[in-house]
Each structure stands twice: as C-alpha cells, then as structure tokens.
C-alpha cells in the first residue's frame, strides 16, 4: 500500500488537515500557494474583502483555465486529425496512381 501523509494546508486564513498519498503532497502545496497568491491579487485589484467572494473568484479562474485548456486541446486534436486525413488522402492518391 502507498504511504499516507497527514498535512495541513492554509488557505484564506483557514487550516485544512488532509490525509493524502505522499505523491500528492507537492501538487497540493503548490496549489495552495497559487490560491493564496490569487487571493491577494483579487483583494488588491478589486478591493474585495469577503473571503467567500474571493474564493469564488479563484474557483472560477481555475475552472475557466481548465475548461480553456480542454477547448484548446480539442481544437488542436481536430486540426491534427484534419491534417492526417489530408495526408492520408494524398498518400492514397499517389498509391493508386
């Protein structure tokens, strides 16, 4: 079995105790730091003081980044598929000739 770790992450002045796989620790700590940086940016840029609003804005920002990456990947896959189909058609044309 994989090793479980008990860690505490601080986000928006709250401590969250977690039991995680050892392999998850680095990613979770980096994510918590990124959230803290984003919280500070939103508080400074928009003068938002309610932590609930700031956390909602952070969640929206992260979710939109994930969705945009998914959309971008789908567009790239579609483009690659079109190029492969065109190449296949070209090869078929030359093989039949």
TrEMBL record:
Pfam families: ZapA. One of its GO terms (biological process) is cell division. It comes from the Bacteria. Keywords: Cell cycle, Cell division. SUPFAM superfamilies: Cell division protein ZapA-like (SSF102829). This is Cell division protein ZapA.
